[in-house]
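Exercise 7.
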Amino acid sequence: MSGNDEALDFEWLLTSWKRNLESQRRSEHTVRAYTASVRSWLNWCEDNWEDPDLSRRQIDAWTSSMTGSAATVRLRQIS
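Solution. The predicted structure, written as tokens, is:
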């Protein structure tokens, strides 16, 4: 992470966020979809030797890697 010596623990954050979504009574499908998207991004980071940092460049690279079509990316995000 730029400007920070301590990397965020995204697995811990994801677990915490999932619990928060569940406590807000979000639908099971919503929680699954959101967490699957985050896991997809984390897996992409690992596969591409990227430290997860949520930068615009990184998110753009991740979404571009899914497909060249924005419509297909959107369909993958909602499924």
